Amino acid sequence: MLAKFSLALTFVVGASAVNLQACNKEIQDRLANQSLASDASIFHFNGTQYMSDPENLQLTINGCRSECANPDFDLYDDMWPRLLTWLFPVLLMIGNLHLPRVGHFNRFLVIFHYLGDPIDSMWSLLTKAEVWNRFYHIALRHTGLKPEEDMMARSYAALMSAFDELTDNMPTAQGDLDAIMRESAAQLSMEDSDYILRETADELADSRTNEVLRTTIIILNYLWTVVASLDPQIGGEQSSKPGGRIGTAMFLSWIVSAVLLSNTLSGFTSRRTCLRVVERYLRTMKGRKRDLHYFPNSPHLVSQSKWIMAKNQTSSLSNYFDAQPWNGSVYSYRKNKRLIPSGHKADKSTLYLLLVAYFPILIAVVCAFVILYETPNVGLGCRTLWVMTLGAALLISPGLTYLLNKVRSKKLAWYLVAVKDVFIAVPIMTVVILSSIGIFNTCWCWSAVYSLGINDAFVILDVLDEREKNGKVVYPALVGLCLGLQVVTFVAMHHIMKPGGRVFRLAEDEKEKAYKDVHDDGTRDTELRSAPYESPMDGQRSGSVSYGSPLYGPRSGSVSSVSYGSPLHDPGSGSPLLPRPGATSGMQDLELPPAAIGGQDERHSFQGRGFISPASPPVSRFGRAPGAYAPLPAEENSQRPFQGR
């Protein structure tokens, strides 16, 4: 399809440009001095008469070429005002797409992915938002709707979302968080564990950029430019009556939805921020330090880095950063769009998200087609042809991306998709720019030949009256409808993202309130209170312990007889996300604190913390059900450094 269009474009470029206004005046003068007959073959015959009325001259294609064509192909004299008025604001919006910090080269590839496959880009963004939604619903289902309970649910969702960010693997994120907290269950009190969790979640939320205000200003500037271009009382008289340039600009109107969507999700301030915060969380849980900003002697805890790299199948920390574009840091590209159910009625399927992502492109293509179709001469011309061709390329592009993502290697799939995007994005932007500066200003393109046929096609020399009429009624209505539908589509997308917005997209006053709630009056002690722990040889613990976590609920009875289930799963059901018996996990690189490696008594400690229900399978020698994220012995870990499991 693109090859055929390229051949057609080559034919058009080889044609001669026309100045219809000058040609119209010249033929009127020749008719007036009778040097040209009114029934000459250059005039279009409509079946009853030759269209040689000086007020409504219509020529055949051959007549136009012989009388009006310039010997040298010229572009529009006012091409720069056309570009500055209609195209430059659109390109400015492209520069305001939120781009992740993944290196300059990969950021260019992200831009090409937006331009070459906007549907998959917005589908991936919506999928990312749905991941946040489901994590939030999973946590909220076991807490409640009170403010303090919602805060704990948001904190759990933020940590799970961070694991998804680092591993690009939603199905294992919840199990990873459970496993990490199990390993510190015998060491930390519930109050301290909750404090660390909430502090980390708040830091993750504070570490994200927020450019919604700047983006809104850019969008408003674009809308004002469009209004000023259509209304002479606001923007002044244009160098020429608008027509095809409006349809060309509307073809890219989907960028409005893409820019708003990408900046609503935003991202972390750097490629290391999320990893650093999660490392600090793991280090704090293991090192039993209340202050999350306390750093041990080493710049980073090697075992935690090995976990991150094991989940991403990379062999070193530098390779992990290099792999970020295809491992979750690029929200607009998500190779694996699999979602786990949260049990909430608001869950949106991947198919539903795909259909929503199609709407901005469909709106843009249809609006551009209708505007160009109604531009005199009414019918299918060169501009409507390129809109249909390139619009079809955008509509099938996500299908090509889906097929390329079948490649097993994430890295190879990323670059194959990027190559495909370049081959689609470059022709689109080239044709849009060429169309705006006059590449289709030919007799062939003005004749609506593709709908009328070569024998019946004709060129109207004086279209100013019709364009002026369209400029007052038709064009403003179509442009307003197009941009209005784009805004409505984004509002629908924003509604989908709203639940997950509780995870990372909090208002500044909410963040401040959350900080005060976590830190109380700022005088909390900074040392962790460890829960008492005894080995099985010392006998059972006795007495009752009470923690006040809103997530786990009240705890009563002796440690050995506690009875309630996991905070993130139904009691007794076990975790549907934990590996099957015999499976391995990237969590096995985490070293357990010495006191956490025990026997049966450790199971009671985990029960008391709400991570293992009484109906769970018998624990292994590491205090877990067989295959449930059990770490390797220390000696085996030491023999397998930086190896992905």
Automatic annotation (TrEMBL):
The record lists the membrane-crossing segments as 242-262, 351-373, 385-405, 412-433, 439-461, 473-497
Kindly indicate whether the keyword Signal belongs to this entry. Answer: yes
What are the UniProt keywords, alphabetically?
Answer: Membrane, Signal, Transmembrane, Transmembrane helix
Q: Signal peptide position in this chain?
A: 1-17
Sequence ranges of Basic and acidic residues compositional bias: 514-528
For bias kind Low complexity, which ranges apply? Answer: 556-582
Q: Give the start-end ranges of region Disordered.
A: 514-645
Q: What is this protein called?
A: Uncharacterized protein
